[in-house]
Amino acid sequence: MQNVLNALRALEEVAVRQPIGVADLARAMQLPKSSVQRTLVTLREAGWIRPTGSVPTRWVVTTKALHVGRHATDELGLRDIALPVMEELRRRTDETIHLAVREGGNVVLVERLETSQPVRIILPLGQNLIMHASANGKAVLAADPPEAAERYMAHGLRDFTDTTITDPVRLRAELAVTRERGWATNSGEWRPDVSAVAAAVIGEGGLPVASISVNVPTSRMSDEAGPVYGALVSEAAKRISTALGRAHEESTGR
Amino acid sequence: MQNVLNALRALEEVAVRQPIGVADLARAMQLPKSSVQRTLVTLREAGWIRPTGSVPTRWVVTTKALHVGRHATDELGLRDIALPVMEELRRRTDETIHLAVREGGNVVLVERLETSQPVRIILPLGQNLIMHASANGKAVLAADPPEAAERYMAHGLRDFTDTTITDPVRLRAELAVTRERGWATNSGEWRPDVSAVAAAVIGEGGLPVASISVNVPTSRMSDEAGPVYGALVSEAAKRISTALGRAHEESTGR
DNA sequence: AGGGTTGTGCCGTGAAGCGGCACGCTGTAT
DNA sequence: ATACAGCGTGCCGCTTCACGGCACAACCCT
């Protein structure tokens, strides 16, 4: 079903490059113009993209993808279970709380509650978090079997800021510390002004399925606040993990 | 491209019914089992769905859709323009702020900032808001040309609570009031405990392209608060509208 | 032990997607 | 004023590749 693959690729390409026209898109995809045009018409018929109405015609994605995407965490009722815990966590910290799920080799932001304090940065839902340069990523990596971490490191560790951990030896040590104390940190390792602490949510297979984090502007992240938030986020993750196990037992029959 | 349409339909069906198996899905879609299976394998190859790993195989959607969906408001940089204004609005009200965009005959929630107060409503992003039973919907409807409102009403006005406006005559009057004062209201007309005030964001064509709202539990929505929030949300929407116009002028050359 | 249902894979046939091509249009450079 | 290059759109014959009936092994309840 090559044309389905092409159509989905076209959809992604439109999302990234929108607003875009047929010719540009055909060039970007290295496909004949007429084929791309037919694909665009089909995607519109399905309601996933729409022309802006301008001339020449430019295409943009609709919110159809959002409708589908919001079910991404439904598998075990993760969102329903996590939200109340996240709310309490925010009440206690008054900082931005993130929920991210594991997805193959990545960690993706799926839910978010913000601090009421003046905020620096708002990450969009669907954002890919870097495994070795985010608290959520490191929490998941630490909870994974060591082979998984090694496999990830084999691809190299890109650096984003001057505090990013790019040395595999240092990352291994950091993961050991994380395992020991039960929560991961991020001190401006992805973007200078974003710091965080996180803890992994463990699924019934014993593997990490998600992670929650408390995100704080680096300027507000004091030496005292870290351990306090760490203890809170670690306890919250544990509560979600056990609730998840209970929900799973019920749904699979006792 | 019938198979593309089927594949996208399958994707939506999986999202709604997940976790689901081949046979169930084939029944739901009224399609041969083998066709559906082939489609599922293709969708997995493209990274939009994945098997849970259990036996028998069950399919769930990945976060791919979220990645695509987060671009849905990129068209004019709406999100970037609206977020700072929404933040200030939340700071002033300490209530939940919603940003919704127009989409054909619907209004869809695309961004959200929550109150820090304990009692609150959390709607998932991608939620479809009812035109005649939400503040955002009524704000858009009031800013539309009268024909559009009439066309919408022609389909009938479903009721959700005992305060839902189901009488076209009353709705017309309500829209007139909304136009007059510059902001729309919702007093538990969709869900009893949800009230809100909203104002439409006007695009460069003079038509409403989006709407922002202040959402308050009905219990907290006093007679005094309404007009105060109304004035704030109305001013915020105006600021977004003019900023949007400016951004559009620049991008289309002077 | 058995009937039903599951997920998976094969394969011949025919429909439908592919892509080269041409058209009308717009905006720019000559 | 004219030529030209780029755009979006539509046609149409060839060939491919998706369709769906069918078979099979594994699994679950009786």
Automatic annotation (TrEMBL), chains A, B:
Molecular function terms, GO-annotated: DNA binding; DNA-binding transcription factor activity
KW Hydrolase (keyword) present: no
Keyword list, A-Z: DNA-binding, Transcription, Transcription regulation
Annotated IclR-ED domain residues: 64-246
Pfam families, A to Z: HTH_IclR, IclR_C
Signal peptide stretch: none
GO biological process per UniProt: negative regulation of DNA-templated transcription
Protein name: IclR family transcriptional regulator
